[in-house]
Amino acid sequence: MDWYQRTFIDTGRSAALCALLGFLITFVIVRTITRRIHAKEQEPEQQQGVLRDVHIGGVHIHHQVWGILLILASGMLAFRYDPQPPWAELLAAVFGAGAALTLDEFALWFYLNDVYWSAEGRTSLDAILVGGAVGVALLLQASPIGDDPADSSTALAYAGTVVLHFVTAGICVLKGKLATGIIGVVVPIVATVGAIRLAKPTSIWARRRYRAAKLARAGRRFDAAYQRRHNRFLDLLGGKPDRP
């Protein structure tokens, strides 16, 4: 307990730890349940049992609804009462659980359609990976805007660093590297590396700025083998999508 006190409580990171644990544990539990329910739906002769979709008045209630409610409730309580430990950690865990429930169905509110088990549903897994990475970065106390201006040689240099930081993150997004850009907002070196490296061939950046030779290089960098490796990882993480 002394180690936990020194590492997390005394440094003010205990709430961030609880939020990250709530996020990860909830995602694992929810994906396990949804994969089990989906497997049963593929075999109609099996009984649904305890694990089944939630319907109210004939309407399927997606788990993102519960996640939104948890985020709203924990956020309002934290803003209103400014809780101290251990209540702050409890609300942080609830917030993390709500974020996992919501981001696990990110593709549904992005496409405005139930694409959970389609190829488009992989967007939810990308959102989960980004959310987890940001949670880890915040736990490590990485700041998206660097040190306080008082610690910089001049306020102008500080402002320039902040602007450069967000520009590189924006370039990553334009290059089709959404996860890299978002993570780079918290971890500057990630955005810098992503901005320097080749863009994905289907990105706005590549279509507008690359000539044939460089576009071909990008195509070789992000070829079918790259996509297969990425898809295998996502299949392991969240289950295989249904065939079209």
Automatic annotation (TrEMBL):
Question: Membrane-crossing residues?
Answer: 12-33, 54-78, 90-112, 124-143, 155-174, 181-199
Question: Where does the source fall among the domains of life?
Answer: Bacteria
Q: Which UniProt keywords apply?
A: Membrane, Transmembrane, Transmembrane helix
Coiled-coil positions: none
What protein does this entry describe? Integral membrane protein
Tell me the organism.
Prauserella cavernicola
Presence of keyword Transmembrane: yes
